[in-house]
Amino acid sequence: xxxxxxxxxxxxxxxxxxxxxxxxxxxxxxxxxxxxxxxxxxxxxxxxxxxxxxxxxxxxxxxxxxxxxxxxxxxxxxxxxxxxxxxxxxxxxxxxxxxxxxxxxxxxxxxxxxxxxxxxxxxxxxxxxxxxxxxxxxxxxxxxxxxxxxxxxxxxxxxxxxxxxxxxxxxxxxxxxxxxxxxxxxxxxxxxxxxxxxxxxxxxxxxxxxxxxxxxxxxxxxxxxxxxxxxxxxxxxxxxxxxxxxxxxxxxxxxxxxxxxxxxxxxxxxxxxxxxxxxxxxxxxxxxxxxxxxxxxxxxxxxxxxxxxxxxxxxxxxxxxxxxxxxxxxxxxxxxxxxxxxxxxxxxxxxxxxxxxxxxxxxxxxxxxxxxxxxxxxxxxxxxxxxxxxxxxxxxxxxxxxxxxxxxxxxxxxxxxxxxxxxxxxxxxxxxxxxxxxxxxxxxxxxxxxxxxxxxxxxxxxxxxxxxxxxxxxxxxxxxxxxxxxxxxxxxxxxxxxxxxxxxxxxxxxxxxxxxxxxxxxxxxxxxxxxxxxxxxxxxxxxxxxxxxxxxxxxxxxxxxxxxxxxxxxxxxxxxxxxxxxxxxxxxxx
Length: 590
Ligand code: M6R
Description:
The chain is of the alpha/beta class.
Protein backbone atom coordinates (compact mmCIF):
# COMPACT_ATOMS: atom_id res chain seq x y z
CA UNK A 1 0.00 0.00 0.00
CA UNK A 2 1.31 3.55 0.14
CA UNK A 3 4.55 4.50 1.85
CA UNK A 4 4.75 7.61 4.00
CA UNK A 5 7.68 9.48 5.48
CA UNK A 6 8.35 12.53 7.61
CA UNK A 7 11.40 14.38 8.88
CA UNK A 8 11.92 17.08 11.49
CA UNK A 9 15.39 18.06 12.68
CA UNK A 10 18.26 20.44 12.24
CA UNK A 11 19.43 19.37 8.82
CA UNK A 12 18.26 21.66 6.06
CA UNK A 13 18.19 19.16 3.22
CA UNK A 14 14.82 17.66 4.21
CA UNK A 15 13.78 17.11 0.62
CA UNK A 16 16.83 14.91 -0.02
CA UNK A 17 16.34 13.02 3.27
CA UNK A 18 12.69 12.36 2.42
CA UNK A 19 13.51 11.38 -1.15
CA UNK A 20 15.95 8.74 0.11
CA UNK A 21 13.42 7.51 2.68
CA UNK A 22 10.84 7.12 -0.10
CA UNK A 23 13.28 5.05 -2.16
CA UNK A 24 13.25 2.52 0.72
CA UNK A 25 9.46 2.50 0.81
CA UNK A 26 8.88 2.22 -2.92
CA UNK A 27 7.92 -1.46 -2.59
CA UNK A 28 4.73 -0.21 -0.89
CA UNK A 29 3.49 1.57 -4.00
CA UNK A 30 4.99 3.31 -6.96
CA UNK A 31 2.39 4.95 -9.18
CA UNK A 32 3.10 8.49 -8.01
CA UNK A 33 5.09 10.27 -5.34
CA UNK A 34 5.46 13.64 -3.69
CA UNK A 35 7.26 15.67 -1.07
CA UNK A 36 6.16 18.73 0.93
CA UNK A 37 8.68 20.85 2.85
CA UNK A 38 8.06 23.97 4.90
CA UNK A 39 10.38 26.79 3.95
CA UNK A 40 10.04 30.51 4.65
CA UNK A 41 6.39 30.23 5.63
CA UNK A 42 5.43 28.40 2.49
CA UNK A 43 4.62 24.71 2.00
CA UNK A 44 6.67 23.77 -1.08
CA UNK A 45 5.09 20.75 -2.74
CA UNK A 46 6.56 18.78 -5.58
CA UNK A 47 4.76 15.68 -6.80
CA UNK A 48 3.95 13.72 -9.93
CA UNK A 49 2.83 10.49 -11.48
CA UNK A 50 5.46 7.76 -11.96
CA UNK A 51 8.01 5.67 -10.09
CA UNK A 52 10.26 7.43 -7.60
CA UNK A 53 13.36 6.71 -9.67
CA UNK A 54 11.76 8.54 -12.61
CA UNK A 55 10.72 11.48 -10.46
CA UNK A 56 14.01 12.52 -8.91
CA UNK A 57 14.23 15.79 -10.87
CA UNK A 58 10.57 16.60 -10.28
CA UNK A 59 10.07 15.80 -6.62
CA UNK A 60 13.45 16.32 -5.03
CA UNK A 61 14.01 20.05 -4.88
CA UNK A 62 16.87 22.00 -3.31
CA UNK A 63 14.56 23.99 -1.08
CA UNK A 64 16.14 24.79 2.31
CA UNK A 65 13.96 23.19 4.96
CA UNK A 66 14.21 21.23 8.19
CA UNK A 67 10.69 19.79 8.25
CA UNK A 68 8.65 17.89 5.70
CA UNK A 69 6.52 14.91 4.75
CA UNK A 70 6.49 12.59 1.74
CA UNK A 71 4.50 9.83 0.06
CA UNK A 72 4.75 7.07 -2.51
CA UNK A 73 1.35 5.94 -3.70
CA UNK A 74 -0.55 2.80 -4.62
CA UNK A 75 -3.83 4.19 -5.93
CA UNK A 76 -7.11 3.23 -4.28
CA UNK A 77 -9.34 6.28 -4.91
CA UNK A 78 -8.55 8.23 -8.06
CA UNK A 79 -6.23 7.10 -10.81
CA UNK A 80 -2.49 7.76 -10.68
CA UNK A 81 -1.99 11.38 -11.77
CA UNK A 82 -0.32 14.62 -10.74
CA UNK A 83 -3.41 15.94 -8.92
CA UNK A 84 -4.13 12.70 -7.12
CA UNK A 85 -0.52 12.29 -5.94
CA UNK A 86 0.04 13.12 -2.26
CA UNK A 87 0.67 15.41 -0.33
CA UNK A 88 -2.76 17.07 -0.27
CA UNK A 89 -3.63 20.44 1.20
CA UNK A 90 -6.60 22.49 2.40
CA UNK A 91 -8.05 25.46 0.49
CA UNK A 92 -5.44 27.94 1.72
CA UNK A 93 -2.49 25.54 1.65
CA UNK A 94 -1.85 25.92 5.37
CA UNK A 95 -2.25 22.22 6.23
CA UNK A 96 -0.64 19.40 4.34
CA UNK A 97 -1.27 15.65 4.69
CA UNK A 98 -0.01 12.29 3.42
CA UNK A 99 -2.08 9.17 4.04
CA UNK A 100 -1.97 5.40 3.70
CA UNK A 101 -5.25 3.48 3.91
CA UNK A 102 -8.84 4.14 2.90
CA UNK A 103 -11.21 6.74 4.35
CA UNK A 104 -14.50 4.91 4.02
CA UNK A 105 -16.73 7.94 4.75
CA UNK A 106 -14.85 10.27 2.41
CA UNK A 107 -17.86 10.90 0.16
CA UNK A 108 -20.04 12.01 3.06
CA UNK A 109 -17.26 14.20 4.50
CA UNK A 110 -16.50 15.73 1.13
CA UNK A 111 -20.13 16.58 0.59
CA UNK A 112 -20.34 18.21 4.02
CA UNK A 113 -17.13 20.19 3.47
CA UNK A 114 -18.11 21.30 -0.05
CA UNK A 115 -21.38 22.65 1.31
CA UNK A 116 -19.30 24.76 3.69
CA UNK A 117 -17.35 26.13 0.70
CA UNK A 118 -14.23 23.94 0.69
CA UNK A 119 -12.77 23.50 -2.79
CA UNK A 120 -11.35 20.08 -3.72
CA UNK A 121 -8.79 19.52 -6.44
CA UNK A 122 -8.33 15.74 -6.52
CA UNK A 123 -10.51 12.66 -6.60
CA UNK A 124 -8.75 11.01 -3.65
CA UNK A 125 -10.34 10.05 -0.34
CA UNK A 126 -7.32 11.63 1.41
CA UNK A 127 -8.07 15.21 0.45
CA UNK A 128 -10.93 15.41 2.96
CA UNK A 129 -8.35 15.26 5.79
CA UNK A 130 -6.56 18.62 5.28
CA UNK A 131 -9.94 20.28 4.64
CA UNK A 132 -11.32 18.78 7.85
CA UNK A 133 -8.29 20.06 9.79
CA UNK A 134 -8.81 23.49 8.22
CA UNK A 135 -12.45 23.37 9.21
CA UNK A 136 -11.72 22.47 12.82
CA UNK A 137 -8.81 24.90 13.21
CA UNK A 138 -9.37 27.52 15.89
CA UNK A 139 -5.78 28.39 16.74
CA UNK A 140 -4.54 24.92 17.81
CA UNK A 141 -3.13 22.59 15.12
CA UNK A 142 -3.06 19.53 17.41
CA UNK A 143 -6.66 20.00 18.50
CA UNK A 144 -7.84 20.47 14.90
CA UNK A 145 -5.87 17.38 13.82
CA UNK A 146 -7.39 15.21 16.56
CA UNK A 147 -10.92 16.48 15.82
CA UNK A 148 -10.39 15.66 12.13
CA UNK A 149 -9.00 12.21 12.87
CA UNK A 150 -12.02 11.39 15.04
CA UNK A 151 -14.32 12.05 12.07
CA UNK A 152 -12.56 9.46 9.88
CA UNK A 153 -13.90 5.96 9.30
CA UNK A 154 -11.73 3.29 7.71
CA UNK A 155 -8.02 2.65 7.96
CA UNK A 156 -5.30 5.22 8.06
CA UNK A 157 -1.74 6.07 8.82
CA UNK A 158 -1.48 9.79 8.31
CA UNK A 159 1.08 12.47 8.79
CA UNK A 160 0.46 16.22 8.72
CA UNK A 161 2.39 19.48 8.85
CA UNK A 162 1.06 23.01 9.03
CA UNK A 163 2.15 26.57 8.43
CA UNK A 164 0.08 27.46 11.49
CA UNK A 165 2.61 25.59 13.61
CA UNK A 166 5.67 24.82 11.53
CA UNK A 167 7.57 23.23 14.38
CA UNK A 168 5.87 19.89 14.67
CA UNK A 169 4.67 16.91 12.70
CA UNK A 170 1.48 15.18 13.75
CA UNK A 171 0.92 11.53 12.95
CA UNK A 172 -1.98 9.16 13.63
CA UNK A 173 -2.62 5.49 13.10
CA UNK A 174 -5.59 3.18 12.78
CA UNK A 175 -5.06 -0.16 11.03
CA UNK A 176 -2.16 1.02 8.84
CA UNK A 177 1.44 0.80 10.03
CA UNK A 178 3.43 3.78 11.24
CA UNK A 179 6.71 4.01 13.13
CA UNK A 180 8.75 6.87 14.52
CA UNK A 181 12.53 6.74 14.26
CA UNK A 182 14.22 8.49 17.18
CA UNK A 183 17.33 10.46 16.27
CA UNK A 184 19.55 12.92 18.07
CA UNK A 185 17.90 16.34 17.70
CA UNK A 186 15.86 14.94 14.85
CA UNK A 187 13.02 12.46 14.37
CA UNK A 188 11.69 10.45 11.47
CA UNK A 189 8.28 9.03 10.64
CA UNK A 190 7.76 6.16 8.24
CA UNK A 191 5.53 3.30 7.20
CA UNK A 192 8.32 0.81 7.75
CA UNK A 193 11.80 0.41 9.22
CA UNK A 194 13.92 0.27 6.00
CA UNK A 195 13.14 3.98 5.57
CA UNK A 196 14.73 4.99 8.87
CA UNK A 197 17.47 2.45 9.45
CA UNK A 198 20.10 4.61 7.74
CA UNK A 199 19.43 7.29 10.37
CA UNK A 200 18.53 5.43 13.57
CA UNK A 201 17.91 1.96 14.98
CA UNK A 202 15.63 3.17 17.77
CA UNK A 203 11.97 3.20 16.91
CA UNK A 204 8.53 3.60 18.45
CA UNK A 205 5.73 1.57 16.86
CA UNK A 206 2.38 3.36 16.91
CA UNK A 207 -0.67 1.25 17.77
CA UNK A 208 -4.23 1.72 16.59
CA UNK A 209 -5.78 4.95 17.94
CA UNK A 210 -2.36 6.42 18.79
CA UNK A 211 -1.35 9.83 17.58
CA UNK A 212 2.06 11.38 17.97
CA UNK A 213 3.28 14.93 18.35
CA UNK A 214 6.75 14.83 16.86
CA UNK A 215 9.14 17.69 17.58
CA UNK A 216 12.88 17.89 16.87
CA UNK A 217 13.87 16.63 20.30
CA UNK A 218 10.78 14.94 21.67
CA UNK A 219 7.95 12.63 20.76
CA UNK A 220 4.72 12.47 22.75
CA UNK A 221 2.21 9.72 21.98
CA UNK A 222 -1.46 10.00 22.99
CA UNK A 223 -4.68 8.13 22.38
CA UNK A 224 -6.83 10.15 19.99
CA UNK A 225 -10.05 8.79 21.49
CA UNK A 226 -9.32 9.53 25.14
CA UNK A 227 -6.67 12.24 24.72
CA UNK A 228 -4.52 10.46 27.33
CA UNK A 229 -0.76 10.04 27.03
CA UNK A 230 0.40 6.55 26.07
CA UNK A 231 3.70 5.17 27.35
CA UNK A 232 5.60 3.63 24.43
CA UNK A 233 8.42 1.13 24.39
CA UNK A 234 11.50 1.96 22.31
CA UNK A 235 12.38 -0.96 20.03
CA UNK A 236 15.80 -1.58 18.53
CA UNK A 237 16.06 -2.64 14.88
CA UNK A 238 18.54 -5.49 14.93
CA UNK A 239 18.97 -6.36 11.29
CA UNK A 240 21.86 -5.21 9.15
CA UNK A 241 21.45 -2.18 6.85
CA UNK A 242 22.92 -4.28 4.02
CA UNK A 243 19.90 -6.58 4.17
CA UNK A 244 17.80 -3.79 2.71
CA UNK A 245 20.25 -3.18 -0.16
CA UNK A 246 20.67 -5.10 -3.42
CA UNK A 247 24.29 -6.00 -2.62
CA UNK A 248 25.34 -6.41 -6.24
CA UNK A 249 22.24 -8.27 -7.44
CA UNK A 250 20.35 -6.75 -10.34
CA UNK A 251 17.05 -6.93 -8.45
CA UNK A 252 15.87 -7.48 -4.88
CA UNK A 253 13.87 -10.46 -6.10
CA UNK A 254 16.99 -12.25 -7.37
CA UNK A 255 18.87 -11.44 -4.17
CA UNK A 256 15.97 -12.75 -2.10
CA UNK A 257 15.75 -16.00 -4.10
CA UNK A 258 19.47 -16.49 -3.45
CA UNK A 259 18.70 -15.97 0.25
CA UNK A 260 16.25 -18.89 0.29
CA UNK A 261 18.76 -21.38 1.83
CA UNK A 262 19.42 -18.87 4.61
CA UNK A 263 15.65 -18.39 5.05
CA UNK A 264 15.38 -22.10 5.93
CA UNK A 265 18.22 -21.79 8.45
CA UNK A 266 16.71 -18.64 9.98
CA UNK A 267 13.26 -20.16 10.37
CA UNK A 268 14.80 -23.20 12.07
CA UNK A 269 16.15 -20.89 14.79
CA UNK A 270 12.62 -20.63 16.20
CA UNK A 271 12.43 -24.37 16.96
CA UNK A 272 12.02 -23.85 20.73
CA UNK A 273 9.08 -21.43 20.22
CA UNK A 274 7.58 -23.81 17.66
CA UNK A 275 7.78 -26.71 20.09
CA UNK A 276 6.03 -24.75 22.88
CA UNK A 277 3.29 -23.47 20.58
CA UNK A 278 2.76 -26.94 19.07
CA UNK A 279 2.02 -28.35 22.51
CA UNK A 280 -0.71 -25.72 22.96
CA UNK A 281 -2.12 -26.27 19.45
CA UNK A 282 -2.31 -30.01 19.99
CA UNK A 283 -4.98 -29.40 22.62
CA UNK A 284 -7.42 -27.91 20.12
CA UNK A 285 -9.98 -29.92 18.23
CA UNK A 286 -9.91 -27.69 15.18
CA UNK A 287 -6.98 -25.86 13.56
CA UNK A 288 -7.56 -23.16 10.96
CA UNK A 289 -5.02 -21.28 8.89
CA UNK A 290 -5.77 -17.83 7.55
CA UNK A 291 -3.56 -15.97 5.07
CA UNK A 292 -3.49 -14.29 1.65
CA UNK A 293 -1.57 -14.80 -1.60
CA UNK A 294 1.74 -16.57 -1.23
CA UNK A 295 1.33 -16.86 2.55
CA UNK A 296 -1.93 -18.71 1.90
CA UNK A 297 -0.12 -21.25 -0.29
CA UNK A 298 2.36 -21.85 2.55
CA UNK A 299 -0.62 -22.42 4.87
CA UNK A 300 -2.24 -24.76 2.36
CA UNK A 301 0.95 -26.85 2.22
CA UNK A 302 0.79 -27.15 6.04
CA UNK A 303 -2.84 -28.24 5.88
CA UNK A 304 -1.86 -31.08 3.51
CA UNK A 305 0.95 -32.07 5.81
CA UNK A 306 -1.24 -32.14 8.93
CA UNK A 307 -3.74 -34.24 7.01
CA UNK A 308 -0.96 -36.68 6.13
CA UNK A 309 -0.57 -37.15 9.87
CA UNK A 310 -4.32 -37.56 10.34
CA UNK A 311 -4.85 -34.13 11.88
CA UNK A 312 -7.79 -32.24 10.38
CA UNK A 313 -7.23 -28.59 9.52
CA UNK A 314 -8.55 -25.93 7.19
CA UNK A 315 -6.67 -23.23 5.23
CA UNK A 316 -8.80 -20.26 4.20
CA UNK A 317 -8.02 -17.03 2.35
CA UNK A 318 -8.32 -13.99 4.60
CA UNK A 319 -10.80 -12.21 2.33
CA UNK A 320 -13.11 -15.26 2.46
CA UNK A 321 -12.53 -16.30 6.05
CA UNK A 322 -13.97 -13.09 7.44
CA UNK A 323 -17.34 -13.59 5.81
CA UNK A 324 -17.74 -17.36 6.10
CA UNK A 325 -15.32 -19.41 8.22
CA UNK A 326 -15.49 -16.84 11.00
CA UNK A 327 -18.98 -18.13 11.86
CA UNK A 328 -17.47 -21.48 12.89
CA UNK A 329 -14.81 -19.95 15.16
CA UNK A 330 -15.11 -20.24 18.92
CA UNK A 331 -12.90 -20.85 21.95
CA UNK A 332 -12.34 -24.47 20.95
CA UNK A 333 -10.53 -23.42 17.77
CA UNK A 334 -6.91 -22.58 17.17
CA UNK A 335 -6.21 -20.14 14.36
CA UNK A 336 -2.82 -19.69 12.73
CA UNK A 337 -2.44 -16.43 10.79
CA UNK A 338 0.42 -16.45 8.28
CA UNK A 339 1.80 -13.19 6.91
CA UNK A 340 5.17 -11.89 5.76
CA UNK A 341 4.38 -8.26 6.55
CA UNK A 342 2.07 -8.82 9.49
CA UNK A 343 0.08 -5.89 8.09
CA UNK A 344 -2.17 -7.50 5.44
CA UNK A 345 -5.60 -6.12 6.27
CA UNK A 346 -7.53 -9.19 5.05
CA UNK A 347 -5.52 -11.40 7.41
CA UNK A 348 -5.32 -8.93 10.27
CA UNK A 349 -9.07 -8.33 10.56
CA UNK A 350 -9.68 -12.09 10.67
CA UNK A 351 -7.09 -12.47 13.41
CA UNK A 352 -8.73 -9.73 15.46
CA UNK A 353 -12.19 -11.23 15.04
CA UNK A 354 -10.96 -14.73 15.94
CA UNK A 355 -9.40 -13.30 19.08
CA UNK A 356 -12.71 -11.67 20.02
CA UNK A 357 -14.40 -15.04 19.61
CA UNK A 358 -11.98 -16.59 22.08
CA UNK A 359 -9.90 -18.69 19.66
CA UNK A 360 -6.24 -19.36 20.45
CA UNK A 361 -4.34 -17.26 17.94
CA UNK A 362 -0.83 -17.92 16.62
CA UNK A 363 1.05 -15.86 14.06
CA UNK A 364 3.71 -16.95 11.58
CA UNK A 365 5.14 -13.55 10.74
CA UNK A 366 8.32 -12.11 9.28
CA UNK A 367 8.22 -8.43 10.22
CA UNK A 368 9.13 -8.09 13.90
CA UNK A 369 6.81 -5.70 15.77
CA UNK A 370 4.20 -5.64 12.97
CA UNK A 371 0.49 -5.34 13.78
CA UNK A 372 -0.21 -9.07 13.59
CA UNK A 373 2.54 -9.88 16.08
CA UNK A 374 0.81 -7.58 18.55
CA UNK A 375 -2.63 -9.17 18.10
CA UNK A 376 -1.75 -12.86 18.39
CA UNK A 377 -1.42 -14.89 21.61
CA UNK A 378 1.86 -16.39 20.42
CA UNK A 379 4.06 -15.73 17.45
CA UNK A 380 6.58 -17.72 15.47
CA UNK A 381 9.01 -15.37 13.76
CA UNK A 382 10.50 -16.66 10.55
CA UNK A 383 13.45 -14.22 10.73
CA UNK A 384 13.77 -13.98 6.94
CA UNK A 385 14.97 -10.35 7.20
CA UNK A 386 13.53 -7.54 5.10
CA UNK A 387 11.80 -8.75 1.94
CA UNK A 388 11.71 -5.82 -0.46
CA UNK A 389 10.62 -7.29 -3.83
CA UNK A 390 6.84 -7.22 -4.19
CA UNK A 391 6.83 -10.89 -5.17
CA UNK A 392 7.38 -12.92 -2.02
CA UNK A 393 10.07 -15.61 -2.31
CA UNK A 394 12.34 -16.09 0.70
CA UNK A 395 9.46 -15.34 3.09
CA UNK A 396 7.49 -18.20 1.48
CA UNK A 397 10.42 -20.49 2.18
CA UNK A 398 10.60 -19.27 5.79
CA UNK A 399 6.85 -19.77 6.22
CA UNK A 400 6.90 -23.29 4.75
CA UNK A 401 9.89 -24.22 6.93
CA UNK A 402 8.17 -22.98 10.11
CA UNK A 403 4.91 -24.65 9.16
CA UNK A 404 6.55 -28.00 8.40
CA UNK A 405 8.33 -27.85 11.75
CA UNK A 406 5.11 -26.86 13.50
CA UNK A 407 3.13 -29.67 11.84
CA UNK A 408 5.75 -32.22 12.87
CA UNK A 409 5.72 -31.06 16.49
CA UNK A 410 1.90 -31.01 16.62
CA UNK A 411 1.87 -34.55 15.19
CA UNK A 412 4.37 -35.69 17.81
CA UNK A 413 2.31 -34.06 20.60
CA UNK A 414 -0.79 -35.85 19.35
CA UNK A 415 1.08 -39.16 19.14
CA UNK A 416 0.61 -39.34 15.39
CA UNK A 417 4.35 -39.70 14.84
CA UNK A 418 7.15 -40.93 17.09
CA UNK A 419 10.14 -39.03 18.48
CA UNK A 420 12.57 -40.88 16.22
CA UNK A 421 10.70 -39.94 13.04
CA UNK A 422 10.45 -36.33 14.24
CA UNK A 423 14.23 -36.13 14.79
CA UNK A 424 14.92 -37.75 11.43
CA UNK A 425 12.67 -35.20 9.70
CA UNK A 426 14.30 -32.28 11.54
CA UNK A 427 17.69 -33.54 10.30
CA UNK A 428 16.25 -33.70 6.82
CA UNK A 429 15.08 -30.08 7.03
CA UNK A 430 18.58 -29.06 8.10
CA UNK A 431 19.91 -30.61 4.88
CA UNK A 432 17.56 -28.54 2.67
CA UNK A 433 19.69 -25.33 2.51
CA UNK A 434 22.60 -27.26 1.00
CA UNK A 435 20.28 -28.83 -1.58
CA UNK A 436 18.79 -25.42 -2.41
CA UNK A 437 22.34 -24.23 -2.96
CA UNK A 438 22.70 -26.95 -5.62
CA UNK A 439 19.49 -25.73 -7.33
CA UNK A 440 20.77 -22.15 -7.27
CA UNK A 441 24.08 -23.28 -8.75
CA UNK A 442 22.09 -24.43 -11.79
CA UNK A 443 20.76 -20.92 -12.38
CA UNK A 444 22.15 -20.75 -15.93
CA UNK A 445 20.12 -23.78 -17.02
CA UNK A 446 16.97 -22.18 -15.61
CA UNK A 447 17.81 -18.89 -17.29
CA UNK A 448 18.16 -20.76 -20.58
CA UNK A 449 14.77 -22.43 -20.13
CA UNK A 450 13.22 -19.03 -19.34
CA UNK A 451 14.73 -17.72 -22.57
CA UNK A 452 13.09 -20.52 -24.53
CA UNK A 453 9.65 -20.04 -22.96
CA UNK A 454 9.47 -16.29 -22.32
CA UNK A 455 7.30 -15.75 -25.42
CA UNK A 456 4.53 -18.07 -24.24
CA UNK A 457 1.27 -16.42 -23.23
CA UNK A 458 -0.09 -19.23 -21.08
CA UNK A 459 1.43 -21.64 -18.59
CA UNK A 460 -0.05 -24.54 -16.65
CA UNK A 461 1.35 -25.63 -13.30
CA UNK A 462 0.30 -28.99 -11.91
CA UNK A 463 1.08 -30.85 -8.70
CA UNK A 464 -0.60 -33.17 -6.27
CA UNK A 465 -1.28 -33.05 -2.53
CA UNK A 466 1.34 -30.88 -0.74
CA UNK A 467 2.69 -29.76 -4.12
CA UNK A 468 -0.61 -28.41 -5.34
CA UNK A 469 0.32 -25.29 -3.28
CA UNK A 470 3.75 -25.38 -4.98
CA UNK A 471 1.94 -25.24 -8.33
CA UNK A 472 -0.19 -22.32 -7.11
CA UNK A 473 2.89 -20.45 -5.89
CA UNK A 474 4.79 -21.07 -9.16
CA UNK A 475 1.83 -19.81 -11.19
CA UNK A 476 1.24 -16.75 -9.01
CA UNK A 477 4.88 -15.72 -9.34
CA UNK A 478 4.80 -15.82 -13.11
CA UNK A 479 1.45 -13.99 -13.23
CA UNK A 480 2.46 -11.16 -10.97
CA UNK A 481 5.86 -10.31 -12.40
CA UNK A 482 5.57 -11.44 -16.04
CA UNK A 483 1.90 -10.62 -16.75
CA UNK A 484 1.48 -14.03 -18.34
CA UNK A 485 -1.65 -16.06 -17.84
CA UNK A 486 -0.88 -19.03 -15.62
CA UNK A 487 -3.23 -21.68 -14.28
CA UNK A 488 -2.42 -23.97 -11.36
CA UNK A 489 -4.31 -27.21 -10.91
CA UNK A 490 -4.17 -30.31 -8.78
CA UNK A 491 -2.84 -32.62 -11.51
CA UNK A 492 -5.78 -35.02 -11.29
CA UNK A 493 -8.20 -32.19 -11.98
CA UNK A 494 -6.83 -31.38 -15.48
CA UNK A 495 -9.05 -34.00 -17.11
CA UNK A 496 -12.14 -32.47 -15.51
CA UNK A 497 -12.06 -29.41 -17.72
CA UNK A 498 -8.79 -27.49 -18.14
CA UNK A 499 -7.42 -30.14 -20.51
CA UNK A 500 -9.59 -28.46 -23.16
CA UNK A 501 -7.13 -25.54 -23.11
CA UNK A 502 -4.07 -27.69 -23.83
CA UNK A 503 -2.85 -27.61 -27.40
CA UNK A 504 0.35 -27.55 -29.40
CA UNK A 505 3.23 -25.98 -27.49
CA UNK A 506 1.42 -24.97 -24.28
CA UNK A 507 3.95 -25.34 -21.44
CA UNK A 508 2.85 -27.49 -18.51
CA UNK A 509 5.12 -27.39 -15.49
CA UNK A 510 4.71 -30.61 -13.53
CA UNK A 511 5.93 -30.84 -9.94
CA UNK A 512 6.96 -34.45 -9.52
CA UNK A 513 8.63 -35.53 -6.28
CA UNK A 514 9.60 -39.14 -6.04
CA UNK A 515 6.72 -40.34 -3.87
CA UNK A 516 3.85 -42.80 -4.13
CA UNK A 517 1.90 -40.36 -6.33
CA UNK A 518 4.62 -40.24 -8.99
CA UNK A 519 2.88 -42.80 -11.18
CA UNK A 520 -0.35 -40.86 -11.00
CA UNK A 521 1.57 -37.70 -11.96
CA UNK A 522 3.11 -39.58 -14.93
CA UNK A 523 -0.38 -40.43 -16.14
CA UNK A 524 -1.44 -36.77 -15.90
CA UNK A 525 1.69 -35.73 -17.76
CA UNK A 526 0.92 -38.31 -20.47
CA UNK A 527 -2.58 -36.82 -20.85
CA UNK A 528 -1.02 -33.39 -21.41
CA UNK A 529 1.63 -34.69 -23.82
CA UNK A 530 -1.04 -36.51 -25.81
CA UNK A 531 -2.45 -33.02 -26.57
CA UNK A 532 1.01 -31.86 -27.73
CA UNK A 533 1.58 -29.73 -24.65
CA UNK A 534 5.25 -29.31 -23.68
CA UNK A 535 5.77 -30.75 -20.21
CA UNK A 536 8.60 -29.36 -18.10
CA UNK A 537 9.22 -31.60 -15.11
CA UNK A 538 10.44 -30.39 -11.72
CA UNK A 539 11.99 -33.60 -10.43
CA UNK A 540 15.20 -35.42 -9.57
CA UNK A 541 16.04 -35.90 -13.26
CA UNK A 542 13.70 -33.40 -14.89
CA UNK A 543 14.00 -30.16 -16.85
CA UNK A 544 14.23 -28.34 -13.51
CA UNK A 545 16.52 -30.67 -11.60
CA UNK A 546 16.32 -30.91 -7.81
CA UNK A 547 18.39 -33.07 -5.45
CA UNK A 548 16.87 -36.04 -3.63
CA UNK A 549 14.84 -34.94 -0.63
CA UNK A 550 12.18 -36.48 1.59
CA UNK A 551 8.97 -35.92 -0.43
CA UNK A 552 7.30 -34.23 2.55
CA UNK A 553 9.90 -31.49 2.21
CA UNK A 554 9.44 -31.11 -1.54
CA UNK A 555 7.26 -27.96 -1.16
CA UNK A 556 10.42 -26.29 0.14
CA UNK A 557 12.95 -27.45 -2.41
CA UNK A 558 10.83 -27.68 -5.54
CA UNK A 559 9.74 -24.03 -5.55
CA UNK A 560 13.21 -22.47 -5.78
CA UNK A 561 13.69 -23.30 -9.50
CA UNK A 562 10.21 -21.97 -10.21
CA UNK A 563 10.96 -18.69 -8.44
CA UNK A 564 14.07 -18.35 -10.62
CA UNK A 565 12.11 -19.29 -13.74
CA UNK A 566 9.47 -16.59 -13.08
CA UNK A 567 12.21 -14.02 -12.41
CA UNK A 568 14.03 -14.71 -15.70
CA UNK A 569 10.81 -14.83 -17.73
CA UNK A 570 10.01 -11.37 -16.38
CA UNK A 571 13.48 -10.10 -17.30
CA UNK A 572 13.25 -11.58 -20.80
CA UNK A 573 9.92 -9.80 -21.27
CA UNK A 574 11.65 -6.52 -20.44
CA UNK A 575 9.80 -6.00 -17.14
CA UNK A 576 10.86 -4.86 -13.69
CA UNK A 577 10.36 -7.94 -11.46
CA UNK A 578 10.69 -5.89 -8.27
CA UNK A 579 7.82 -3.58 -9.09
CA UNK A 580 4.99 -5.35 -10.91
CA UNK A 581 2.21 -3.17 -12.26
CA UNK A 582 -0.90 -2.59 -10.13
CA UNK A 583 0.58 -4.31 -7.08
CA UNK A 584 2.11 -3.28 -3.78
CA UNK A 585 4.05 -5.28 -1.25
CA UNK A 586 1.91 -4.73 1.77
CA UNK A 587 -1.84 -4.65 1.20
CA UNK A 588 -3.22 -2.73 4.15
CA UNK A 589 -6.75 -2.25 2.80
CA UNK A 590 -9.50 -4.85 2.55
O1 M6R B 1 2.49 -9.79 3.85
P1 M6R B 1 1.63 -10.98 3.54
O2 M6R B 1 2.37 -12.27 3.58
O3 M6R B 1 0.42 -11.04 4.42
O4 M6R B 1 1.12 -10.75 2.07
C1 M6R B 1 0.16 -11.60 1.49
C2 M6R B 1 0.08 -11.38 0.00
O5 M6R B 1 -0.34 -10.08 -0.29
C3 M6R B 1 1.42 -11.64 -0.69
O6 M6R B 1 1.90 -12.92 -0.42
C4 M6R B 1 1.27 -11.48 -2.22
O7 M6R B 1 0.45 -12.47 -2.73
C5 M6R B 1 2.66 -11.50 -2.87
N1 M6R B 1 2.77 -10.42 -3.81
C6 M6R B 1 2.94 -12.77 -3.59
O8 M6R B 1 4.19 -12.77 -4.19
